[in-house]
Amino acid sequence: MRVTVSRKAHFNSAHRLYRKDWSMEKNNSVFGKCNNPNYHGHNYELIASVTGEIDVETGFVLDVKILKNIIKEEVEDAFDHKNLNLDVPEFENLNPTVENIAVVIHKKIKSRLASNLDLEVVLYETPRNFVTYSG
Ligand code: NI
């Protein structure tokens, strides 16, 4: 039986959406307020869902304490109260859109899971705007 185990998490981060190789005018026309040079913040909500077979001995797909610790180390410690553009190496040359943040989070968490487990990441940038990435 394949079952999905999910864990919610939260982090606050600042970012700016722009390309260094574009003019201010072009960045403003594409990214609007998100190109504010002084950055702006979001309250990100993450749902990480791990799907796999139930272990017959433990009854777990994976121990949710393990998933909680992976999210703490890979996402909360790395992103919470950080400026994504300036403080997080993954975004040094990658625009920190909610799409790209979800892909980076997926890669970081997936690298810590057994290879027989599937991972889906849902990331909310606002209560109404969210993306889904499954690799
Ligand atoms: Ni933004």
Q: Can you walk through the features of this model?
A:
This protein is of the alpha+beta class. It has one domain: Tetrahydropterin Synthase, Chain A (2-Layer Sandwich), CATH 3.30.479.10. Helices cover 30% and strands 30% of the residues. It contains four helices and five strands; from the N terminus they run E-H-E-H-E-H-H-E-E. A hairpin with a 5-residue loop joins strand 4 and strand 5. It is elongated. The model has no long low-confidence stretch (mean pLDDT 97).
Task: Provide tags for this entry.
135 residues, alpha+beta, Tetrahydropterin Synthase, Chain A, five-stranded mixed β-sheet, 5 strands, binds nickel (II) ion
**Assigned CATH architecture:** 2-Layer Sandwich
CATH class: Alpha Beta
Extract low-pLDDT stretches: none
Q: Please write the string of helix (H) and strand (E) elements.
A: EHEHEHHEE
The class by helix and strand makeup works out as alpha+beta
Overall pLDDT level: 97
Number of helices: 4
Oligomer: single chain
Identify the overall geometry: elongated
Tally of distinct domains: 1
Strand content: 25-35%
**What are the distinct ligands in this entry?**
nickel (II) ion
CATH homolog superfamily? 6-pyruvoyl tetrahydropterin synthase/QueD
**CATH topology title:** Tetrahydropterin Synthase, Chain A
Q: Largest sheet, described in full?
A: 5 strands, mixed
Helix content range: 25-40%
- The radius of gyration is 17 Å
Q: Strands of the largest sheet, in order across it?
A: 3-1-2-4-5
- State the distance separating the first and last CA atoms: 22 Å
Number of strands: 5
